[in-house]
Amino acid sequence: MKKLIPFSIACLVIAIAGIMNAPNTHSRPEGAPALASGAPADNNRTCATSGCHSGTASDRDGLITSNVPSTGYIPGETYTMTVSITEAGISKWGFQATAQNSNGDLQGTYTLTNAAQTRLAAGTNGAKYVTHTTAGNSGSTGSKTWSFDWTAPAAGTGTVNFYTAAMASNNNGGTAGDLVYKDQLALEEDLTTSAASTNAALSFNVFPNPTAGQEIVITTSKSSQASRLVIYNALGGIVKSENFAAGQHKVDVSKIPAGLYFIWLDQAGEKSMKRFIKQ
């Protein structure tokens, strides 16, 4: 009997250790770790590929929405981002969302409007991600919604992409069988409004404008400084960008389709914008 006691204790220790190190039985109650939003800069990693849960993340439109108007976000303004997921019979949930560019840099800033339900993710660069809390892990059966505020970045940032991954857990005591979805939301910049906030000390001319020709000429008011030029289309997409030295600069627009464009100019941090029409 004396030999059995140490063996029993050892078994108990092993059992407890096994429980403590076991995989999560449902969506992490304390929130998803960083790098699980499905962002390209994070190698498209989600909670289905982070080691927390098995399976493959499926695309689902409408997981993340916002109240940014169709005209685009205004730099410095604050908007509400909403993550919603529905799945019949499910009552355990999780999510992670981020706004970042292709280099993984955070675009804008977050404000947690419901600290009981949401928080910033733990781990390296966790501040780039919003996730659920323990209280935000549960909800009414069949659906779950989280929200937080986002303050748009500086003028000239252009399109901001939000990435989110959301999970509907079957709560079966294991990592298999959970449903993971991912979505992307592109928010365009309101270039017209952004132009009003640029530095009036910088000005430039575009000639001819409109044009049906092959090139336009840019003349800046500060001829002694080099410039960075970016041309956006009406949807906020970049169609051309280049640097040029001081003075006049000829820009090849032969490959730009007819339409309305916005030319941004940056000289030593001072920015200005003009509309440009290609006929």
Features:
279 residues; mainly beta; Immunoglobulin-like; 2 domains; six-stranded mixed sheet; four-stranded antiparallel sheet
Verbal overview:
The strands form 4 sheets. The protein has a 6-stranded mixed beta sheet, with no helix packed on it. The protein is mainly beta. It has helices at residues 4-20, 191-196; strands at 58-59, 64-66, 78-86, 92-99, 109-111, 118-120, 129-132, 143-151, 160-169, 179-187, 204-207, 215-220, 227-233, 238-244, 249-252, 259-267, 270-278. 33% of the residues are buried. Strand 11 and strand 12 form a beta hairpin. The chain has 2 domains: 21-189, Immunoglobulin-like (Sandwich), CATH 2.60.40.4060; 198-278, Sandwich (Immunoglobulin-like), CATH 2.60.40. It is built from 2 helices and 17 strands.
Q: How many helix segments?
A: 2
Radius of gyration: 25 Å
Sequence of strands across the biggest β-sheet: 1-10-9-4-7-6
CATH architecture annotation name of the largest domain: Sandwich
- Average pLDDT works out at 80
Q: Which outline best applies?
A: elongated
- Note poorly predicted spans: 1-27
**Total number of β-strand segments?**
17
CATH hierarchy, class of the largest domain: Mainly Beta
Helix and strand content put the structural class at mainly beta
The major β-sheet equals: 6 strands, mixed
Q: What distance lies between the first and last C-alpha atoms, to the nearest angstrom?
A: 96 Å
Summarize the model shown.
By secondary structure, this protein is mainly beta. It has helices at residues 4-20, 191-196, and strands at 58-59, 64-66, 78-86, 92-99, 109-111, 118-120, 129-132, 143-151, 160-169, 179-187, 204-207, 215-220, 227-233, 238-244, 249-252, 259-267, 270-278.
